[in-house]
Amino acid sequence: MSKERSPRGANAGSKTTTRLAPHKSYAAKTKDPLRRPERRNASGNLIAPVGQKNFSNAKALPQHALHLERLLPELLSFEQPADRVVSRYFRAEPQLGNRDRALIAESAFAILRRKNEFSQFASSGEGSQPRRLALLGLLSALSEGGLGSANRMESAIADLAHVLKPGEYEWLQRFATIDPATLSPLVRNNLPEWLWDAFGTYPGEDSREALAKCLMRPALLDLRANTMKTTREQLLAEMNALGGRYQAIPTPYSPDGVRIMGKPALQNTVGFKAGMFEVQDEGSQLLSYLLAPKRGEMVVDFCAGAGGKTLAIGALMRSTGRLYALDTSERRLANLKPRQARSGLSNVHPVWIDSENDAKIKRLAGKIDRVLVDAPCSGMGTLRRNPDLKWRQTPTGILELNEKQTNILASASRLLKPGGRLVYATCSLMPQENQAIAEDFLAKHPDFEVIPAAQALKSLFPKDVLPLGCSPDNPWWQLWPHIHDTDGFFGAIFQRKAAVIEKKLPAEECAPDAEKPKKTKKALK
Ligand SMILES: C[S@@+](CC[C@H](N)C(=O)[O-])C[C@H]1O[C@@H](n2cnc3c(N)ncnc32)[C@H](O)[C@@H]1O
Predict the structure, then answer these.
(1) Full-prediction pTM beyond 0.90?
(2) Residues 416/420/426/430 CA torsion (nearest 10 deg)
(3) Cys-Cys crosslink for 142: which of 105, 148, 221, 241, Cβ 3.0 to 4.6 Å?
């Protein structure tokens, strides 16, 4: 699952701002109440809405509820990833401005986050079921999604009043007075039964409710300062100088992280276009420190996707050495291209592979200093960002992923030189995708040993007794949304032993030109 995506809601399919016309005027102008003309000034530029410079204090309008009603059937069929459904919908509705998109997307994701609770309440009340869900989604986006001026449900209902039909105001007020303790655990925690049970086993009954509650909230919006072009301090100063209704603060753990308090659209900013930053969860930023790449090294990002981690790794390498970004998805690798261009990195080499056994990979065997396997996984650590996954994933699906994870890790391990570092990572919270895969790998690969995460990270967090995400009981690295306010991540660090590799590797894998990047470059063409 791809993890570094645009912040839900705020930037989903963002485009140039259009005027939010009052309901009556656009309804009068067009037959379709959802299609209203763009408003432009004499120079042909889109007219910015008066008094609404950014996404805070978004104003819900009747058409927002109508768009949600249209979007919901496909979204709730769970046939496609929610972000794809929403992006496609926005492409088909080019008249929608940034704020419209932000509010519709945030409401849609709120409905996915709290599907059990909203569906139970919406089984009775005013209007159609989609209309009821749409109103609950808007209410959630305005009160908890960072889009409204109100952070209490009662005031958000008042903000929605002009959108409501007779009876709906009282209906929403009834919703606001529900005591969650009266709801069943599956309803109040908005999880499918299999996942609620799984969280009861791990992390355990004491903490599963705290985890589930955290996963019902929208994710934070974190940026990684691109140190090839700026520093975190400069980025903080520049973001705060823009004067939007948000605040930029340093992230608590990642040295290059900037947290945006608010929901601005960033994709049209000069800083984004100039490659000063990438949107990246703080936990994902930290993962590159497990790999700890050095200048001039040969590095492989085995499951690079659209390159969220590739770009962070490339910056740590100061654009030196060679960084292969492999992936089986052409679409995802294509998305890496513009990000790479913005980043200013010249050491990144995207390579499409047909599988983890592609012949191109065999040619790199034994030549690489560091390999990251950011494996395809259930994505259960990203449910704040991708809430549809909890309804789309199944225990059988996770079993299928386990086989893939095992095979990819085994194949990737062949790339490493003696003494080279291998990092296995997921954004899953499920031990069968994490610890179990890492332990199985160790058992089957005696030429590898574990480097405890606490040892690898200690220089990064010198003030802590144990570095962030490390445990005194095991060598793995794990971040939890309800503890660290990041996405959930798992990391295992292995090192290829020097002595065993010479005996174990087949002759063709111990290529004599192992340290000649030029030959390797040809080999991958
Ligand atoms: C968790 S995502 C990677 C996210 C990416 N590292 C990032 O930071 O944006 C997993 C990726 O593994 C890729 N993948 C799936 N099967 C693969 C295989 N057999 N070999 C390499 N990559 C694979 C998927 O296309 C997907 O992009």
Answers:
(1) no
(2) 100
(3) 148
